Amino acid sequence: xxxxxxxxxxxxxxxxxxxxxxxxxxxxxxxxxxxxxxxxxxxxxxxxxxxxxxxxxxxxxxxxxxxxxxxxxxxxxxxxxxxxxxxxxxxxxxxxxxxxxxxxxxxxxxxxxxxxxxxxxxxxxxxxxxxxxxxxxxxxxxxxxxxxxxxxxxxxxxxxxxxxxxxxxxxxxxxxxxxxxxxxxxxxxxxxxxxxxxxxxxxxxxxxxxxxxxxxxxxxxxxxxxxxxxxxxxxxxxxxxxxxxxxxxxxxxxxxxxxxxxxxxxxxxxxxxxxxxxxxxxxxxxxxxxxxx
Length: 293
Known about the structure:
There is one protein chain. The chain has a single domain (56-290), classed as MetI-like (MetI-like fold, Orthogonal Bundle), CATH 1.10.3720.10. The chain has 13 helices and two strands. The protein has helices at 12-38, 56-62, 65-98, 103-111, 118-129, 135-142, 153-181, 185-193, 198-209, 211-228, 230-236, 248-258, 262-285; strands at residues 41-43, 50-52. The chain has a two-stranded antiparallel ribbon with strand order 1-2. Helix 2 crosses helix 13 (262-285), helix 3 (65-98) packs parallel to helix 7 and helix 7 packs antiparallel against helix 10 (211-228). The radius of gyration is 23 Å and the shape is globular. The chain starts with 11 loop residues before the first helix and ends in an 8-residue tail after the last helix. InterPro entries: MetI-like (IPR000515), MetI-like_sf (IPR035906), UgpAE/MalFG_permease (IPR050809). It is found in: Cell inner membrane; Cell membrane. Residues 71-283 form the ABC transmembrane type-1 domain. This is sn-glycerol-3-phosphate transport system permease protein UgpA.
């Protein structure tokens, strides 16, 4: 029999959710509404005068080759961060789940990066690859590989991808580890008795049972790569060399606060929000069908 919680007052449920609703309204709906409103205006840099221009800001955006190229850059970056982050985190979770002695130490060390701010993560990875004192860059040069993220676009992209994956690896690791520990060991033992190899047990039993966790983390990592990596890009490459690492969220900031194109930046934020919402809907509409609950 289904049990329902009954409140003596009809207003009590609304009072209980009021703080959360206030946060959502103030920090999501209000900024989104402001961006939508400003995207159809044209105003000076100080906001002293404005005129209604309709869709002209959007037309100007999609006629800008630099803005269209940022879609390609963002797509490459988000795929590398989401897929790479999930793969590395799953590998670490599987390894940590098999550790018997010192398991707490391994898990604690893998959780630490989540406490680091994105801008700090960007600076840390920049210092490791910076010239001439970067430890990793020095090792690469000693092996005969000339690393230069200031001039080479591929190197710059690799730098921000590694920093973004490292920053979010703890979040993914925690969920994967929890998912692995919730899998009944009797299933693994039965497959072992039947002669299944470790690789076969993982792909036929473990990974399918992790599909709800993997799907959830896929959605979260896509959103993370689109929005929360701004500070990493800003600290590590400033969108360079040229504009080769200028992802959509960084371009919104650059055009709005440096180029002083407030309304063009607002239009970009509307487009970015629409893209993320569309991607989330597509994932829930099509990818979730492959998930086994």
